[in-house]
Design brief:
23 strands; globular; Diaminopimelate Epimerase, Chain A, domain 1; eight-stranded parallel beta sheet; alpha/beta
Length: 577
C-alpha cells in the first residue's frame, strides 16, 4: 500500500501530551505535513470530516503478547466464551472441526476464566467430557495455569507420585491425585510433551495478532515475552523474518525472556546480548523478569500471609541476590529491565534491586514494573524517586468476578485498599505507561481508559467503582497509553503527533471529552494509520467524503478486527506474564 495523502478536518487533536487548538491534520506521502485550522490550502485527494471526533497518536501497548495471542486465536480459543457451558461447546466444536491426523494429536489453545470454576481450578474430568481421546492443554487467560485432560496427564506421566516442581503447583484431590489443573512452573510438566508449533504457525499467529491490534488503533507494542514460555515457541526468529520481509508494519520491541533457574548470570547476559537488536521495526532492547505469580492461585508474592485457610506468602521466583546481580549485569550491558510484579513483596523486591543498581530519574534508563496490582503505600513514591515506570494494565482495576471471588477474599481489607494505585502514582510524578496484556484481556485501549478514568466497567460483576480516589483523569490516561508507552519503547516515531514525522494515528468514533465518563467504553476505533499507511479502516466510515484509497492486494489491511480474540466481560484479574 502506498503512503497516504489525507486531510482530516474538524477533528479534536490529542498530540500525545495535550489537546491542541487546531482542528486539521494534513498527511502527505505518509508524513504529517501540517497541523492547522480550516481547510488545507492545497487539499489532498481524500478528506475525512471528523465532526469533532478525537484523533490521537496510535496507541502503544506497553505489555502485550502479540505472537502468543495470535497463535491462540487461531487454535482452540475460548477467550470469548460466556461461562463454562459456552467454553465447553467451543472446545467440542474445535475438536470436531480439527480431526486428528497424527497420534497423539494434541488440542492446544486457551483463554478460560478461573471465575468459571470453584476456587479457580478446572478439572480433567470436565475436559474429558468434550475431548476424551485427544490430549488437551488449554492455558488460562492469564497464562499462569493450564487445564489438561486425563490423556494429557497420562502422556506426560503426571500422577500422584509426581512432586511439585520448583515454582509450580499440581492441584490435587484428597487422595493426592492430580485433578487436571497446573499452576506456574507445573505447566511445563505437560507442555514439554506438546509438539512445538512450526514456523508457519508462529508467523500466522504474529500476523493475526498484528491485525487485531491494528484494528484497535494500536500502532506499536512491547511483546512481553520473547522466548520459550508455557508451550509457546520462541517468536524471535519469526519477528526478525517479518521485519526483513516488511510483513511487520508496526514498531515492536521484544522483551527477551530471563528464564527461571539461571545460575550463570554472565553467560545468560552474553546469550541475550547476541539476540540484541537496536535497529529496524523489531528491536530487542528489553529483558523480562517474572518475579511472582498471581493472586488467584496465591502465587503472587506477599509480605504478609494470605488470609485464606491455605495461608502462605506466595512465590518469589528469584532471590534478592540474584535480582541485584542480574539487574546490574543487564544494566551494564545496556538493556532495559521489564518486571512482572503482582504482589507487594514482588514490587518491593524489584524496587530494591533497581535502587541497588543506582537507578534514578535522570539516567535515561527505561526500566519498568508491569501490573503493580498490590503495592504497599510506602513503595508508591519510590517509582518516581528511582525513575521506574509504572506499566498499568488499567482494565483490571474494577470489581470483575475474579476480583470479587478470588482476590479480595484472600487479600483482606488492608491490601484490598492497596489495589492498583494509579492516582497515587500520578500524584507522585511517576512516569506512567499502559498496556493490555492481551490475550489475558481485550487489547481495546478505550475499555482500559474507561476503567482508568472510572475505576469500573459497565460489564463488570459489580459496577461500583473500585477505590475511586485512584482514578486517572482522561488526559493522563491518554498520555500513558501513547507518549508514556512510546517512552518505554524508546520510540521516535510513535506516541506523538508532530510535524514532519511518519503518521502513526488512530481516529476514534467519538470525542471522550464530550461524553459522560460512563460512556468512554462505547468508543471504537475507526481508522488506523501505521507508518504513513492505512492499516485499518472501519467497513463503512460515516464521515468519508471520498472512497477509500485502493489497498495493496498483496497485504490488504483488515477491515474488521479478527473475531476470535475478544474478551467479554472485561479483563479478568488473572495476571499473566
Amino acid at each position: 500500500m502506498d503512503p497516504v495523502d489525507l486531510d482530516i478536518l474538524d477533528v479534536t487533536i490529542f498530540d500525545g501530551h495535550a489537546i491542541r487548538p487546531e482542528n486539521r491534520v494534513s498527511i502527505r506521502s505518509g508524513r504529517i505535513a501540517e497541523i492547522g485550522t480550516g481547510p488545507a490550502a492545497s487539499p489532498a485527494g481524500r478528506t475525512i470530516t471528523a465532526a469533532g471526533r478525537l484523533l490521537t497518536p496510535g496507541f502503544v501497548d506497553a505489555h502485550v503478547h502479540t505472537a502468543f495471542g495470535g497463535q491462540e486465536s487461531l487454535a482452540c480459543d475460548v477467550s470469548g466464551a460466556d461461562g463454562l457451558a459456552d467454553a465447553l461447546d467451543t472446545i467440542r466444536r474445535f475438536a470436531a472441526d480439527t480431526p486428528a491426523d497424527s497420534s497423539p494429536a494434541w488440542i492446544t489453545g486457551g483463554g478460560w476464566s478461573m471465575a468459571d470454576f470453584p476456587g479457580g481450578n478446572p478439572t480433567a474430568q470436565i475436559l474429558d467430557g468434550v475431548t476424551p481421546d485427544r490430549p488437551t492443554i488449554l492455558l488460562s487467560a492469564d497464562h499462569h495455569s493450564a487445564w489438561v485432560n486425563t490423556a494429557a496427564l497420562a502422556i506426560s506421566g503426571v500422577d500422584s507420585e509426581t512432586p511439585n516442581p520448583e515454582g509450580g503447583i499440581i492441584v490435587r484431590d484428597d487422595s493426592g491425585a492430580p485433578t487436571g489443573c497446573l499452576h506456574e512452573a507445573a505447566i511445563d510438566l505437560v507442555s514439554a510433551h506438546v509438539p512445538p508449533a512450526d514456523v508457519e504457525a508462529v508467523r500466522a499467529g504474529l500476523l493475526a495478532g498484528q491485525d487485531y491490534l491494528s484494528a484497535l488503533g494500536v500502532t506499536a507494542w512491547m511483546d512481553a515475552i520473547v522466548g520459550d514460555y508455557g508451550g509457546h515457541r520462541d517468536p524471535f526468529d519469526t519477528y526478525v523474518r517479518a521485519d526483513e520481509t516488511h510483513d511487520l508494519r508496526s514498531e515492536a520491541v521484544g522483551s527477551l525472556w530471563w528464564p527461571r533457574g539461571v545460575e550463570d548470570i554472565d553467560a545468560e547476559v552474553a546469550r541475550l546480548r547476541d539476540r540484541r537488536r537496536t535497529d529496524g521495526r523489531f528491536r530487542t532492547t528489553s529483558v523480562k523478569f517474572m518475579l511472582d505469580g498471581i493472586v488467584e492461585s496465591q502465587t503472587a508474592a506477599m509480605r504478609a500471609e494470605y488470609t485464606c485457610t491455605c495461608g502462605g506468602y506466595g512465590t518469589n521466583y528469584f532471590t534478592r541476590d540474584h535480582l541485584e546481580a542480574s539487574f546490574a549485569a543487564l544494566d551494564a550491558a545496556g538493556f532495559d529491565i521489564h518486571c512482572h510484579a503482582i504482589g507487594d513483596a514482588a514490587v518491593k523486591a524489584a524496587l530494591d534491586a533497581f535502587e541497588a543498581i543506582g537507578a534514578n530519574p535522570n539516567d535515561g534508563r527505561r526500566h519498568h514494573i508491569a501490573h503493580v496490582q498490590v503495592v504497599d503505600p510506602a513503595d508508591v513514591p519510590r517509582f518516581a524517586e528511582l525513575g521506574i515506570t509504572a506499566n498499568l494494565q488499567a482494565l483490571w482495576a474494577c470489581f470483575d468476578q475474579q476480583m470479587i471471588d478470588l482476590n479480595i477474599p484472600v487479600l483482606g481489607p488492608e491490601r484490598t485498599a492497596w489495589l492498583y494505585p494509579f492516582g497515587s502514582f500520578a500524584s507522585t510524578g511517576a512516569h506512567l505507561a499502559m498496556g493490555s496484556d492481551w490475550p489475558v484481556s481485550t487489547a481495546n485501549p478505550w475499555e482500559a481508559i474507561h476503567v482508568a478514568a472510572n475505576r469500573s466497567h459497565p460489564a463488570a460483576a459489580d459496577t461500583a467503582p473500585l477505590l475511586p480516589d485512584e482514578a486517572l483523569d482522561l488526559i493522563t490516561a491518554l498520555r500513558a497509553y501513547t507518549a508514556g508507552s512510546a517512552h518505554l519503547l524508546r520510540s521516535d516515531t510513535n506516541g506523538h503527533i508532530r510535524l514532519g514525522e511518519r503518521a502513526n494515528l488512530a481516529l476514534a468514533s467519538a470525542n471522550p471529552f464530550t461524553l459522560a465518563p460512563g460512556e468512554i467504553s462505547t468508543i471504537t476505533n475507526t481508522l488506523t494509520i501505521v507508518d504513513g499507511r492505512i492499516a485499518f479502516e472501519a467497513a463503512s466510515p460515516p464521515d468519508a467524503t471520498a472512497p477509500p484509497a485502493p489497498s495493496d492486494t498483496a497485504a490488504p489491511p483488515p477491515n474488521t478486527p479478527p473475531a476470535a480474540p475478544h474478551v467479554v466481560p472485561p479483563a479478568s484479574t488473572e495476571r499473566p506474564s
